Amino acid sequence: MRTGLLGVGGLLLSAVLSVAHAADDPPKAPDAPPMPADEVLFLRVIEEARTAYDAAPNNMVRGATRPARMNKLCTIMPSPKVKGWLGTVEILNSTSKGNGVLTVRLNEHVVLHTWSI
Predict the structure, then answer these.
(1) β-pair type (88-94, 100-105)
(2) What angle do CA 90, 92, 95 make, to 5 degrees?
(3) Where would a tag sit more exposed on the chain, N or C end, judged by fewer CB atoms within 10 A?
(4) Phi, psi of 101 (to 5 degrees)
(5) Could you tell me what percent of the chain has a pLDDT over 90?
């Protein structure tokens, strides 16, 4: 009986020491899979449009950046379906009507979300 308690105590001490040691080490990011090419292109189009919008000298030129962005996105993405894209789920919920609500952040500036009609 005493041996069993000492064994459990030793395991607990080892676990505590491991946790304490791990807290001192800087966190390591897990290896992320490579971003799919269509997602890279999508984000590039968004960033280029954002840069053009910010650099525009007036509201008329800024307004023209939106349809230009839309045309580029429609060209590179003939379908709204994507597969294998990388992002962070920020909201996963449902409406009172039972419709799904999903918000996914692709990067610092791009957030995709569903909406209920």
Answers:
(1) antiparallel
(2) 130
(3) C
(4) -125, 125
(5) 62
Q: Where are the beta strands (DSSP E) in the chain?
A: 88-94, 100-105, 111-113
At 29 the pLDDT is 63
Are residues 91 and 106 in contact, defined by beta-carbon separation less than 8 angstroms? no
Task: Give the tens place of pLDDT for each residue, 52-85.
Answer: 999 999 999 999 999 999 999 999 999 989 999 9
What φ, ψ does residue 35 adopt, rounded to 5°? Answer: -75, 135
The pTM is what?
0.67
| Pair 46, 110: CB distance under 8 Å | yes
* Count of Cβ atoms closer than 10 Å to residue 42 Cβ: 21
Sign of the dihedral defined by the CA atoms of residues 48, 54, 55, 61, in that order? positive
Collect all residues with Cβ–Cβ distance below 8 Å to 64 and sequence separation of at least 6. 56
Which 8-state DSSP code applies to residue 107? S
